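Supplementary Note 2. Why include the ligand at all?

Several targets in our set were suspected to adopt different conformations when bound, so apo predictions alone were not considered sufficient. For every target with a known small-molecule partner we therefore ran a joint prediction. The input for xanthosine-5'-monophosphate is given below.
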Amino acid sequence: MATLSTHPGGIVILDFGSQYNRLIARRIREAGVFSEILPYNTPYEQILERKPAGIILTGGPSSVLAPDAALPDPRILQAGIPILGICYGMQLLAQLLGGKVERGQVGEYGPARFYRSGENALLEGTPQSFRVWMSHFDQVKQLPPGFRPLGKTGNVLAGFYDDRRRIYALQFHPEVSHTEYGDRILQNFVLNISRAATGWTTGNIIEHQIREIRRRVGNRRVVLGLSGGVDSSVAAVLIHKAIGDRLTAIFVDTGLLRKDEARQVPETFRRHFRMNLRNVDARDRFLSALRGIADPEQKRKIIGREFVEVFTEEASRIPGVTFLAQGTIYPDVIESRPSGGPSATIKSHHNVGGLPEKMQLELLEPLRELFKDEVRRMGLELGIPHKLIMRHPFPGPGLAVRIPGEVTPEKVRLLQEADAILLDALHRHGLYDRISQAFAVLLPVKSVGVMGDERTYGHTLVIRAVETTDFMTARASHLPSAFLDEISTEIINRVSGINRVLYDITSKPPATIEWE
Ligand code: XMP
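The joint prediction is reproduced in token form.
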């Protein structure tokens, strides 16, 4: 696994569980510096291995006053590496360095006005007072020896520092956009105080990854499952650029893909990128395995199992393959960490059925350090069409999870038609890029209608469109009602078999984005 040792001079972020941690990492990367989120209790040796220029202790839900408070390896305080503690991280520093923390009378949540005291390196370039975002209950009541106050919000101490030891603490969150000058403060820490290595740019990342792939693979062979989604497409093009025909991409037509995709994806990669690609038509196999199955979990399991079998069979026909490449990205890594920081959660249903274990191949995951927006920028720079790069996510089990109940070829066909009309209309109206994900769901519910002089008895279709930044929470998009009118009419007129269209207005939670 690639770590900071291949990007020395970056920033290590110790994860104490705040919901904003990924924002810290992204803000730092946007400043051109590599940053890595590690569990809060990562041993000192592992932190040093990465040769970090600075360390950030994040916010988190626990209290330093609790007997089981989350603590970092204390040796980081003696290392001479610049440290910035944010929120819980500030209280930790106060406690560990000999100050005093108390339970506050009332919590401070949301916006507040910060008043600076004096000048120092962290707040360089900020005015005497500005708006900040707070989220805490405990308060630092007494500074650790040798430290000076940074400023206050109301009567509450909102930060402290020691320029000589290069240790800084902030009660507010500089990473959230509601904090004015937040970017400037983080940049002061990263660039001026830590003097971190810059050069984390899309061009450099591509060059670095190509070198790494060539070094690891040598003249051996790689196989990759290409779905046509953003991550696997970018991984495929990057690896292809590094090792050319020693990469074989396998595209499986499960029969559960969107309309025309089974034709378009292989065509794009063969024609445009001249990639070595095997196209497997497994439609019958998937659809027969799903016959008579209505339970969502069982459907997912069957699809996962069939996928592994089809993929393994196809891969075993390619002689001399040593590596299995995957488009795993950084959020997947953080989310599936078995003993990660407190903010780690596991999305087990997204890991398509255990491919790597079964295949005994070495894993090649060139995107595992990258956030989605970095992957997208990389894809554009590698010449992947804009439309593909800006695509909404599509679940591994495909349309099967958008057909509650039994999946039949006829239902898949109806859904493909309706979904294509929806996506086409969103593009036409310039709405596609303004929402995070939109799709149609075909319900196993029929209702009576009337078209012309005839009575109809047809399927019900649901339109779902959501807005989200991380797909962990989402709200239903407010699509214009004229647009909803238009697609409802278009779908019912053009897809015979559907005679009613509904709009899903549920957020996540309590619902999930997909229906199954
Ligand atoms: P849910 O339905 O869990 O979906 O709110 C969150 C996001 O994940 C996508 N999704 C999947 N992606 N394999 C995937 O690669 C899956 O099995 C899967 N299930 C859901 C979903 O489309 C949404 O973007």
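The mean pLDDT is 93. Residues 349-350, 393, 395-397, 437, 471, 508, 512-514 surround xanthosine-5'-monophosphate (CB under 6 Å). Comparable summaries for the other entries are listed in the accompanying table.
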